[in-house]
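Researcher: Good morning. I'm working through a list of sequences from a screen, and I'd like to move beyond sequence-only analysis. For each chain I'm collecting a predicted structure so we can compare shapes side by side. This is the next one on the list. No need for commentary yet; just the structure.
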Amino acid sequence: MAHQFGLNQLADTRWLTLTRAIETSARWLDAVLQKYPSPEAILGCAVEPAKALGLEKLQRALDSPAPLGVPPVLLGDPPLHVITPQDLEYPPLLAECHDRPPFLYCRGVLSYLSATTLSIVGTRKPSLEGRRAAREFAAAAAESGLVVVSGLALGVDGIAHDAALSAGGGTVAVLPSGIDQIYPARHQKLAERVIAEGVLVSEFPLGTPPRKHHFHRRNRTLSGFSGATLVVEAGRPSGTLITASAAADQGRDVLVLPWSIYHREGAGCRYLLEDGAVLVQSVEAMQAHLGVPTALLPRSDTAVLADSHQVSTLDADQKTMLSLLGSGTHGADILSSHLNWELNRCLACLTALEVSGRVKRVSGGYTAVT
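Model: Good morning. Structure tokens for this chain:
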């Protein structure tokens, strides 16, 4: 059963100290917890068995005169839970992975951990089309009864979490840091919403800041949650490709949206498709592949969500310009040449978009504001 913190302070701090001391695999932890399922049992373990299992370090940590305290922020509602592969709450598909985390720190609705999930990932700087696709596919997944799993990152990840919750579904956010160290900080409010309506998860001990090598581990855990990972929009190289590669290594399906050969943030998607990923060109195709019910709302309704105001007031020229800009930076002369427009027409369009805050001028030309 998941270990809840804040009820028995002494036992709680011992469990937290135990998780901080573990630096090995889940399989090793399985063997230990089958024989010694609590900190007290480990402390009472005889000398010879402790040596055989490599528990001396744990015993020293648990016997420390200054055990790790529980940060006050984690004693609220909902409380902090620590889950091991021995617990029923541990995500069933993740439990099948040979490199599954030995501990999961969780806050929120624990039932979502064992629900049928879809991992959705993508670039941190999506184009307007990428933002729309992330929101539409995540909403459709939620409407179909799937829990959306992602990494709380800027861009596609954050949009996927928000869309799933806005559609009345559940979401799992997997952090590259301790659960008390929200990353990125700009998503603090989104994390609070996930805790209230979904579940926030980390495999890293309390107080752990995000480090470069943590993202690779987080991505493997993120993909391990689900039978399939949907890649919305991705550059090459990118962390999204690492997640997709991890999903393939775990024997999971990788679903990918197609992008133009001229779209830089679509290069990773095209690479995955060449490598055998499943092509998905509509939410209905995604639902059919996953074997879930079609969304309850027609696509024309579900697409009109939080990002719709960004394009509803644009004229045809402005929509065309934003589509061409994507996530890149281009000079006005290059844009006018691609569009076969007079330069004055191009500059007038860019100026209107700049005034509305959808485009900004930078070194090298113009770029879309995402």
